[in-house]
Amino acid sequence: MIRSMAFLPGNTPNMLINGDSFGADALILDLEDAVAPSQKDSARILVRNYLRTHKDHSGTLVVRINSTDTDYWREDLQAVLPERPDCILPTKVDGADMVRLICREMEAIERACGMETGSVGLMPLLETAMGIEQAFAIASASPRVKALVLGGEDLTADLHSKRTKEGMEILYARTRLVCAARAARVEAIDTPFTDVNDMEGLRADAAFAKGLGFGGKLVISPRHIDTVNEVFSPSQEEIDYAREVLHCIAEAKENGLGVVALRGKMIDAPIVARAQQVFDAARTIYGDIF
Amino acid sequence: MKIQKPAMAGTLESSDCMVTVTPEGGESVRYEIESIVMERYGDAIERAARETVESLGVTSGRITIQDRGALDCVIAARVETAIRRAAVKEVVV
After folding, report:
1. Which of A186, A170, A173 minimizes the C-alpha distance to A138?
2. Per-residue pLDDT band at A53 (split at 50, 70, 90)
3. What's the pLDDT at B90?
4. Would you state the CATH architecture of domain A4-231?
5. What is the Cα–Cα distance from A151 to A153, expressed in whole angstroms?
6. How far is CA A124 from CA A88, A226, A256, in A?
């Protein structure tokens, strides 16, 4: 389960070595925007060494590689893939062909290293209008795809619109991406909230994204991690209700009842499915609480 | 790998190190290390650098490390980057 995915600049040792203590469910070791062109070689070797010495990292480790329209992405993959990160986060993904191109390169490296093919996942970053329109094709292009990730800043530029805190300009992209991801049975991760000091705005933005169906959110500041984790975790009220629903259903099955009501409302399949999702999420986060 | 020209990698920020690699004649690699934790970790820093130098097949040159509390994996990365940069011959047009 990934509620928060925090970016760590790939060429900054101080951030990399402290990343473990930030509390994010996933760390993104960034070889792209956070690294100057003159330091790409340096970051690639540093991130490779970091992965090599952090095999016991308890969270998810993701590497953001440079886009396929640069000279860097193949070297990025060749450096980091043998160290078996959990996922690769390719940028500016705008169609299934791009996913397949990256998958072919990954497979060749995996074979050359004697790794099981398909063992490293993909989390395509959708940050262009075309990427959003191709969301389902991207999500279903390979079994490697584990999540679709929204990049709102670049997308807004591509849409010729202005990025705002309210986010109406990316509402269509958010809903389209969630629908595509859920249809393809992969996770949906929201764009980051970029005002580092506006904690109320962050909470509202994360809650809105959760309401749309996102399972987690990108994070660009360590200060945002706790709030994002909290918002994307089930509340005590949600957990209590899920417990009641599942208890009710189990009891009804035991008594041979077909229809059951709770708090005056009929419990039907979607309510049970939602309760099960809350139950599973709570168990992942808090352990065996039931 | 042969050191062809001077090259640098890394920074002087906390938890990092600045590595300078310089070509030298002879058949040995000379290490010059300056660290805020020299007394305690000087040997470990040189060991991390030496292992990287040997794994890249470098047999001569000078490796200067200005350490600011870097972990072994960071020292090894900066030394490797500096050597790879130093091993590229400049093309004279």
Report:
1. A186
2. very high
3. 61
4. Alpha-Beta Barrel (3.20)
5. 6
6. 8, 24, 46
Can you read off the two tokens belonging to residue A204? Answer: 């509202």
Residues B2 and B81 sit within 8 Å (Cβ to Cβ):
no
Tokens 């705008």 appear where? Answer: A94
Evaluate if residue A24 carries a pLDDT over 90.
yes
Chain A residues close to B10, C-beta within 8 Å: 42
Sort out which chain A residues have CB atoms less than 8 A from B74's CB and list them.
13, 17, 46, 49
**Interior CA angle at A46 toward A42 and A51, to 5°?**
150
Does residue A92 come out as left (phi exceeding 0), alpha (psi in the -120 to 50 range) or beta?
left
Q: How far is CA A194 from CA A12, A170, A197, B19, in A?
A: 20, 14, 9, 34
- Spell out the domains of chain B, with CATH numbers in brackets: 7-86 (3.30.230.10)
Per-residue tokens: A282: 């709570």
Phi, psi of B22 (to 5 degrees): -130, 135
Residue range A171-193: average pLDDT?
98
pLDDT for residue A56: 83
Cβ contact, residue pair B72, A14, below 8 Å:
no
Q: Name, in order, each residue with C-beta under 8 angstroms of A242's C-beta and a sequence gap of 6 or more.
A: A234, A274, A275, A276, A278, A279, A282
* pLDDT tens digits, one per residue of A129-146: 999 999 999 999 999 999
Whether residue B92 is predicted with pLDDT greater than 70 in this model: the reply is no
| Of A50, A88, A83, the residue nearest A68 (C-alpha) | A88
Q: What is the DSSP letter of B42?
A: H
Domain boundaries, chain A: 4-231, 236-286
Strands (E), chain A: 4-9, 26-30, 60-64, 87-89, 121-122, 125-126, 147-150, 187-190, 216-219, 261-262, 265-266
Residue to mutate among A15, A21, A29, A45, with most B CBs inside 10 A, is A45
* Contact status, residue A228 vs residue A196, Cβ threshold 8 Å: no
